[in-house]
Amino acid sequence: MFLRKLASASVLWHTSKPRLAPMRLYTLSKRHFVLVFVVFFLCFGLTVFIGIAGPNVIETSVARTDLNNSLKLKPFNLSSPPLSTYNQQLWLTCVVELDQHDVSLKKNVTMTVKVLGVVKDGSTPYVNNQVHNRTRLLSCAQKCSEIIVAHLGYLNYTQYNIFVSFEDLNKLTYTIQNITFTWKTYNPTFSQVEIWFRFVFVVLTFMVTCLFAHSLRKFSMRDWGIEQKWMSILLPLLLLYNDPFFPLSFLVNSWFPGMLDDLFQSLFLCALLLFWLCVYHGIRVQGERKCLTFYLPKFFIVGLLWLASVTLGIWQTVNEVHDPTYQYRVDTGNFQGMKIFFLVVATTYILYLLFLIVRACSELHNMPYVDLRLKFLTALTFVVLVISIVILYLRFGAQVLQDNFVAELSTHYQNSAEFLSFYGLLNFYLYTLAFVYSPSKNALYESQLKDNPAFSMLNDSDDDVIYGSDYEEMPLQNGQAIRAKYKEESDSD
Description:
By secondary structure, the chain is an alpha+beta fold. 52% of the residues lie in helices and 15% in strands.
């Protein structure tokens, strides 16, 4: 009688604590974990190889202009190649060539730019109805760096005429041998590849989202683990990250679809940063997580990052609509302050995340179920971050740490692999997490097991309650086959 009362009290104490919905992660053996990572790398490698075999992202057309003393002060009349909506954007850049190659020079040069659009009847109306005067930094070390003259974020005309004149070139102490102007646009073939791959990722993400939601339909939302709750948020945001509205940019001549794409990308990436903070902290804090002490500091840090990125993007887009020669890195004194602010907040985020990871690993390394969740997320996230850093370094090299890389990201793509690697990496990362965090096929049976942190004792005998059972000492990583073996031995006894 005493044993039954003690068992009933133990059952009441355990069942009063929240029981998490089971995860497929608990049923995977070591061999299955290896298989999950192998499939992840195969899918990512497949997108990279497809990208390598794909077309170049940027299509260039060089307009070479020879100079002599009589032409230095005259404007250059430059006509762009024929354009279509698949060219997406248009850049005009120039490189000044001096007669001496071993020259170290830095000088501000004033240029006047007039942009004209060519319509079907041959007339050339002004774009924005004004002439633009801008100052650019001419920097030379062995050879002069490239200067961005103008950038059109969307194309209203099939051809553009741009008049460019430099006012301070005649004041240089060195002789100018040549000025090379280059038109840069998106390759129309790449635009078609981008449309198809975005469509494929949108369809795959929609299917994964539906399957994940369907697998959790039998469990109350209050019983979901923190990873499962966050996946139900991240998967719809991943759908927006892939931008199902992207084809609008080819149907509507407006800056709005491009800014919408930037907004979706920043929203998803900041949500992913918030997910890492909440999971590494929430996995230690069971039960109710208060908004003021748990969520508010994390939302504040990530919100500052999101606000900085969105402000910078909208700032650039709106100003480029009114002035194609606008660049915030050379035309706005506040850009340096914005950059310092962003670096300070990013450093704070990294230190806070490292603190949460170290503390979670130190406190939970002896808890089998929680330790498994922690190790898998840390391992997969570390792999994704390392691949991202390698891609950034291969794409930009040392320029990733320089001031001028931000404004010129769009003109540094070399092939489709650089585009597909980022999209494929984040998509397959979320697909893998959705797979391991979704309930397994025998989810109803798993929900009766002793899941951490609330082990159900409804099916235990009196002896198991008082003295424990061999089943509780079963090593988790050996998988469901060994678990079944222990269960059979317990039943036979």
